[in-house]
Design brief:
Elements (H helix, E strand, L loop, with lengths): L3 E13 L4 H10 L3 E14 L4 E5 L6 H8 L7 E6 L9 H4 L2 E5 L11 H12 L3 H15 L14 H13 L5 E5 L7 H18 L2 E5 L3 H7 L2 E6 L2 E7 H8 L2 E8 L7 H5 L3 E5 L3 E7 L3 H11 L2 E8 L2 H10 L1
Parallel strand pairs: 3-7, 3-8, 5-6, 6-7
Antiparallel strand pairs: 1-2, 1-4, 8-9, 10-12, 10-13, 11-12
Helix pairs in contact: 4-6, 5-6, 9-12
The protein binds adenosine-5'-triphosphate and magnesium ion.
The site of magnesium ion (MG) has 3 residues, from helix 2.
């Protein structure tokens, strides 16, 4: 059985549209104008037990709305979903015990209390024993490097430390499915890396099924082999991250290194492809995929070139292009 199975899931928000000015406000009292926002539009996917899948999309694509439905915080307008066999929005107590949702943009710990007190409270709510609480705090505190921060009031922790505490709080009851909505947002690069590595390690150790959103491509590239891309509420890609490059990048980047003391004019290089970068010792050309071999051959034959590198266009750029469509 798949850990997560979603079929035709749809969420339409009905929002009240205000007309500008006083007259608009008065008119609004009598004829409310509603606008329908299709935040999530007929999405379907399946995630197997233990998979770590990246959920990507531009701002407003419908990622958080989807995760909220899968966590039972929102009712869908239509469609179905099962997570570990549960219909999330039926909010079974047993479901609450097997999943967790972490919202990077939202603080779920008590602001004025030391983190440990929030953790103790969570342990009580979820029926986690004192022994397991201690074990988890030791294990995860160690992995995240916050073992000595548990007694500091949450509001005094740094953003990164707070996020780490949020993760520990969410994992106390050892959920089998974990929804992570931008767990690294706003963190400095070092904390981002720690959190990223923690997620990878946790997934490997506990075989937790994880659906993760992030606007940082490093997170996605280092953690997820599979990605689901959503735009305007619809899934536009679901597959291996590598395949994105094959499917969407029509170009490769060809870097030439000049032989000692030699170089070429930009005009001359432009005849081989789009000139992206030009230095005294090297140049980067963007070349159509199907022309790469013949172009490299010509470059070697015709220019004072000592070395050639061929690279894929960075995934980040490819994804930006997909979103732009
Ligand atoms: N409670 C709500 N009422 C009305 N519209 C909403 C509500 N929540 C979300 N929306 C709209 O639904 C759409 C999807 O929002 P959502 O938060 O799911 O996007 P997202 O993919 O998480 O974006 P981001 O990357 O910015 O976090 C947006 O157009 C948003 O304005
Ligand atoms: Mg969001």
């Amino acid at each position: 059985m798949a850990a997560i199975e979603v079929n035709g899931l749809t969420k339409v928000f009905r929002t009240y549209r205000k007309e500008p000015g006083l007259i608009g406000a008065i008119k609004g009292l009598f004829h409310r104008k509603y606008e329908l926002v299709r935040a999530v539009d007929q999405i379907s996917f399946k995630i197997e037990v233990g998979e770590l899948v990246g959920f990507l999309g531009p701002n407003g694509a419908g990622k958080t709305t989807t995760l909220k439905m899968l966590s039972g915080l929102l009712y869908p307008t239509s469609g179905t979903a099962r997570v570990l066999g549960f219909v999330p929005w039926e909010r079974h107590d047993a479901y609450r015990r097997v999943f967790a949702l972490v919202l990077g943009q939202k603080n779920q710990l008590w602001w004025d209390l030391p983190a440990v007190e929030s953790l103790e409270l969570n342990a009580k709510i979820y029926g986690v024993s004192r022994a397991q609480l201690n074990r988890t705090m030791a294990e995860l505190g160690e992995l995240l490097g916050v073992r000595d921060k548990f007694s500091i009031p949450v509001r005094e922790l740094s953003l990164g430390e707070r996020m780490k505490m949020e993760l520990i709080a969410a994992l106390l009851h050892q959920p089998k499915v974990l929804f992570l909505d931008e767990p690294t947002i706003g963190l400095d690069v070092v904390s981002q890396k720690v959190v990223r590595e923690f997620i990878r390690e946790y997934n490997a150790r506990h075989k937790t099924t994880i659906l993760l959103t992030s606007h940082y491509m490093t997170d996605i590239q280092e953690l997820c082999r599979r990605v689901i891309i959503i735009d305007h509420g619809r899934i536009i890609f679901d597959g291996q991250l590598d395949a994105i490059v094959d499917q969407f990048a029509d170009f490769k980047l060809v870097t030439i290194h000049y032989a000692l003391g030699a170089s070429c004019s930009a005009e001359r290089l432009a005849g081989y492809g789009e000139l992206i970068e030009h230095n005294p010792a090297s140049a980067v050309l963007k070349v159509k995929r199907d022309r790469v071999i013949s172009v490299c051959k010509a470059l070697l034959d015709e220019l004072p070139v000592s070395d050639i590198d061929i690279q894929e266009v960075p995934i980040e750029e490819v994804i930006r292009k997909i979103f732009a469509r």
